[in-house]
Amino acid sequence: MLIEQDSKVDPSKWRIALHVAELKASIIREILKISSQPGVISFAGGLPNQSLFPMDDLKWAMETAVEKYDSTCVQYALSRGIIPLRELLAERATNDDGVESSVDNILMVSGAQQGIEIVARAFIDPGDYILTEYPTYVGALQAFNYYQAQYCCAEMDHDGILIEKAREQIEKHKPKLIYTVSNFQNPTGISMGVERRHQLVELAQQYNIPIIDDNPYGDIRFRGEQVPSLKSIGGDIVVALQTFSKILAPGLRLGWMNGPASIMHHFEKVKQCSDLHTSTIAQYMIYEYLMAGKMEPQIKRISEFYKNKCDLMLQSLEKEFPAGATWTKPDGGLFLWVELPENMSAKELLNKAIERKVAYVYGEPFFPDGGGDNTLRLNFCTPSDEEIREGIKRLGQLIHEEM
Fold first, then answer.
1. Per-residue pLDDT tens for 224-237?
2. Domains of the chain and CATH, by start
3. Distance of CA 100 to CAs 108, 181, 260, 261, Å?
């Protein structure tokens, strides 16, 4: 029986922690609410193309997991993750990427985003600095902001983070972490060059600052030669974050961390506070999927599909966008990055774009200091071919008019 409500009860006046009350909602999620309206062509999301989710194989993997492991696959599991999957991921890292790894280096997480949050919770005290690329992944900024981090940033060129800029920031601010998205960066699509990777590792080793390499897109390369990972170059100075979200299906919420064995117990304690462990059945499903050799054909299929999408968007940009606008030409991943003439605001332009039934993410949230007003991010993997042609045409017409 419900107790009669007291008129003094007012949840809006409950004393939420100040650092939570001051958190900003993800701008991408807010834009997605708008762009999901009927008829809107959306380049806004960070979503993979769901037509590529291997549903028959996932059904097979779930049935196999239930049949082989029975109730074990829906029972509580180790916080670090089930041992067979961790052993397999360590073996693949060692053999395929040249990263000497064992089961003690691997921690399963509920998507790479949880890995970022675990790192933030383990390292950051209020006011600590983090060195990031400029711009950087907005989801990481959200996680770091929760722990009241400050930022020192280094600009990028076509080869990734500028090392001397990074050195200047390290010497000035003494950051606790270096956070990078080294492969097909979100938001720019830029991939760090081999020489630059070695230089960044040497810099981190010199100052003994861990590199957090957020690498959800590294397998989705559709042009150019594969490059060594930061982890394979840097060893224990690097904590690598990876996920099955972009190459398999994000709803599985399954990723992993590969870090020094001496630090992983700290990450394990943090994870225990959060969710005890990642989904047991998802781990057994992915283990069976990998053991059956299904992942490599899936990655090849995705990469070929996204290459065609990216090429079509690049062709459409060349055709429809005015002189004065520039954009990146990624070799993989999900995104490309547009810079408009300096006097144009991508944020102010968005409402006019939505009136024309096309949406994107403006660049400002990707800059820790709120810069980048003339920039925007486009996702090329989700829209249909016709939507890419028509959406870029609409945006091009709008930019022409505003110029």
1. 999 999 999 999 99
2. 12-53+297-402 (3.90.1150.10), 55-291 (3.40.640.10)
3. 18, 21, 10, 11
